[in-house]
């Protein structure tokens, strides 16, 4: 956006070329407001419904002004994205719940990132890879220079888009501390996203320059993923999507939350935190053969057994407690019409915790179990901003320093998540930041409306 508006742009990318683009390479869709069917989007998804969905998952921990700015921007950005080589496609089976709300990138996030970089290069944006910033010079809330590998780089304006601190395991450990069982939960976290989001610039801005902060350092986009996933960059394919079709138990063999509370795209990002609160930060998703074919299959096959006791033994869960849990659940399932594409009437009765939808007895062998660990995608602690994307110091917006992406997502996401909203935030504020950076270069005033 800055280059299109006439500014000369240098992009400093901390990662090597193969890992460029941060967590965008791990995305797959964009949540879009629309008032009528649009190419790959069916029906309508009006502003108020989008806002209510966001309000529900955040529990009110969001800035409504900035959230609605993001929502409205999501309705008009796709033509601009297409102009830079991004292609869209309808959702594949296993993701049909979001056919109305989310536009999927053809080729996924990697194709999106590649398209943007190709377009940036054609426009004349200079790009340096393996170029992490050591520190910034800031005077009276104004950007002066960036220091990169011993080089001092001056510029009229700067946009920070350096992500959260999710791949800084020491900072995660510090933020989460020790729980009442004497455990350090963060030691069992896996990082779904890029290994390069160390939070160096975020901490530098907060601690060395006193930038205004937003968000809780323990809040994050946190998903229950396969416990066998790699420490970094597991991405989408490590997610376990069968939770709503079965039950989840902890290592003691006990259920701990309503698996059928709502559609999976609105609830998958709470399960990492739920598992993080369990003993040993581990859980087990249990399904039977009735669920097969109704969810996106994970990259690793599940543990399989012909009987539930055998499954418990293979998972290392106490068989007696596990069987009590499963029997209580099966007995509590009420007759109904099962339909995993709607909020159906299959629920439990007199069971704590309940299962509100898609509850049916787990009785048909073979049975499957998937060990779950918390998978952190990105953290929500970030820089406080306003609708100009300006970084703020003591409540005052900077004249020439802007922020975009995960580094400011906490202004909209205080907690929780709903599929595709991170890309909505990144796209909206990336465009705002780029446009306003160009205005600074051109000597034009940036209008600050609301924080």
Features:
single chain, alpha+beta, Flavocytochrome C3, Chain A, domain 1, 2 domains, 6-stranded mixed sheet, 3-stranded antiparallel sheet, 19 strands
- Residues in helices, as a percent range: 25-40%
Distance between the termini: 22 Å
Mean pLDDT: 95
Shape by Cα distribution: globular
- Top CATH class of the largest domain: Alpha Beta
Question: SSE order, as H and E?
Answer: EEHHHEEHEEEEEHEHEEEHHEEHHEEEEH
- CATH topology value of the largest domain: FAD/NAD(P)-binding domain
Could you tell me the strand content as a percent range? Answer: 15-25%
Strand count: 19
| Global structural class | alpha+beta
List low-pLDDT spans.
Answer: none
The description of the largest β-sheet is: 6 strands, mixed
Look at the structure and name the CATH superfamily of the largest domain: FAD/NAD(P)-binding domain
Rg calc: 23 Å
At CATH's second level, what is the architecture of the largest domain? 3-Layer(bba) Sandwich
Count of individual helical segments: 11
- How many domains make up the 3D coordinates? 2
Q: What this model shows, in words?
A:
- The chain is of the alpha+beta class and 451 residues long.
- It has two domains: 10-164 and 199-219 and 380-441, FAD/NAD(P)-binding domain, CATH 3.50.50; 221-375, Succinate dehydrogenase/fumarate reductase flavoprotein, catalytic domain (Flavocytochrome C3, Chain A, domain 1, Alpha-Beta Complex), CATH 3.90.700.10.
- The protein contains eleven helices and 19 strands.
- The model has no long low-confidence stretch (mean pLDDT 95).
- It comes from Variovorax defluvii.
- Residues 3-413 form the FAD-dependent oxidoreductase 2 FAD-binding domain.
- Its cofactor is FAD.
- This is FAD-dependent tricarballylate dehydrogenase TcuA.
């Amino acid at each position: 956006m800055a280059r299109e508006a006439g500014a000369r742009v240098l992009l400093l990318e901390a990662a090597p070329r193969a890992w460029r683009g941060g967590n965008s390479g791990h995305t797959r869709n964009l949540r879009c407001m629309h008032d009528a069917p649009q190419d790959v989007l069916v029906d309508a998804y009006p502003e108020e419904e989008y806002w209510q969905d966001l309000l529900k998952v955040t529990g009110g921990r969001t800035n409504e002004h900035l959230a609605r700015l993001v929502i409205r921007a999501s309705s008009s950005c796709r033509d601009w994205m297409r102009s830079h080589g991004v292609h869209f496609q309808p959702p594949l089976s296993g993701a049909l719940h979001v056919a109305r709300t989310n536009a999927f990138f053809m080729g996924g996030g990697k194709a999106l990132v590649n398209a943007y970089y190709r377009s940036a290069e054609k426009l004349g944006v200079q790009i340096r890879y393996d170029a992490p910033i050591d520190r910034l010079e800031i005077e009276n809330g104004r950007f002066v220079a960036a220091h990169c590998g011993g080089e001092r780089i001056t510029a009229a304006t700067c946009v920070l888009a350096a992500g959260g601190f999710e791949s800084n395991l020491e900072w995660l450990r510090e933020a989460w501390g020790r729980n009442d069982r004497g455990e350090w939960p963060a030691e069992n976290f896996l990082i779904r996203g890029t290994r390069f989001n160390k939070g160096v610039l975020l901490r530098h801005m907060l601690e060395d320059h006193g930038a205004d902060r937003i968000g809780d350092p323990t809040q994050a986009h946190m998903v229950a993923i396969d416990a066998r996933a790699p420490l970094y960059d597991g991405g989408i394919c490590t997610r376990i999507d069968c939770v709503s079709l079965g039950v989840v138990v902890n290592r003691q063999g006990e259920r701990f939350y309503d698996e059928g509370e709502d559609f999976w795209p609105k609830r998958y990002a709470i399960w990492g935190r739920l598992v993080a609160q369990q003993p040993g930060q581990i859980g087990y998703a249990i399904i039977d053969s009735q669920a097969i074919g109704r969810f996106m299959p994970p990259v690793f096959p599940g543990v399989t057994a012909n009987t539930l006791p055998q499954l418990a033994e293979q998972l290392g869960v106490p068989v007696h407690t596990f069987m009590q849990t499963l029997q209580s659940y099966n007995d509590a399932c009420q007759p109904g019409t099962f339909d995993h594409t709607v909020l159906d009437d299959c629920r439990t009765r007199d069971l704590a915790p309940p299962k509100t939808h898609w509850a049916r007895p787990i009785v048909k062998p073979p049975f499957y179990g998937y060990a779950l660990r918390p998978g952190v995608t990105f953290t929500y602690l970030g820089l406080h901003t306003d609708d100009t994307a300006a970084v703020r110091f003591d409540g005052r917006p900077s004249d020439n320093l802007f922020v975009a992406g995960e580094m400011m997502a906490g202004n909209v996401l205080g907690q929780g998540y709903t599929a595709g909203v991170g890309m909505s935030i990144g796209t909206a504020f990336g465009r705002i930041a780029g446009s306003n950076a160009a205005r600074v270069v051109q000597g034009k005033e940036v209008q600050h409306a609301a924080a």
